[in-house]
Predict the structure.
Amino acid sequence: MHNANSSSAELKTQSRLEWQNKEPLFMKKAHLPSKTCLVCQRSFDWRKKWEKCWDEVKYCSERCRRNRQKR
Ligand SMILES: [Zn+2]
């Protein structure tokens, strides 16, 4: 009986460890496409608001877009 108890406790610990180990993998899986901003040369990540026009996005923000148009 003692044995059965300890082994189920071990299982719990193991699955908890596995779950913790999987967290970084989830983040990798969620890796988003990114581009380099033409104005500030920084890379920026895909955003939900760009899902329909990602191909046309060239600047990381509205601010940069305006900077580009301004002389
Ligand atoms: Zn920018």
